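Recall that a protein's primary structure is simply its ordered list of amino acids. Everything else, from secondary elements to tertiary packing, is in principle encoded there. The following example makes that idea concrete.
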Amino acid sequence: MSDEELYLFSSTNEVVWIEREANGDISIKPISPTLVAAASSDVAGELWRWLGDEGHGRLLAGAGFFLPDGSMFGPRIALVSPEKSAVIANREKDGFAPFAPDFVVEFNGVFDESGEMARKMERWIANGVQLGWLIDPFEKTITAYRPGAAPEEHVNPSSVQGTGPIAGFELVLARVWG
């Protein structure tokens, strides 16, 4: 599918999660189950509160991004810098953003194959994301991904500190794990 065809297909199928791999393969999954949706909302709420105070960019939930390798991914949560946010605001038509976000949060869910989300996080980083968190609400783990570094797993942490584009942010996990 071309970028425009993919956007149109996605816009008419809002009850599924649609992404495109760099090789053109299309992935279609059901919308999030309750636990993942609740965890995603809790994390987004904490980030939104922090951004309101700090003004480090714009928070996007479920938005699509056309990446440099030709893929189109939609993270559960993304943060874009003020400069990238201005690009979105100045676009003549709506559509998926033509760049990688600065920070992404993804969640392991019941519809994901083993290792699938870890591979996706590596592709996010390879396409320009500065920091990514993969949260598994079932296993109570957060794995941080950064360019040039091995993934860093935190098992059942009470909180996790942001770095890079979210330096100064602390995610307290009581609600997420609850």
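Residues 32-177 form a domain with the tt1808, chain A fold (CATH 3.90.1570.10). The chain has one domain: 32-177.
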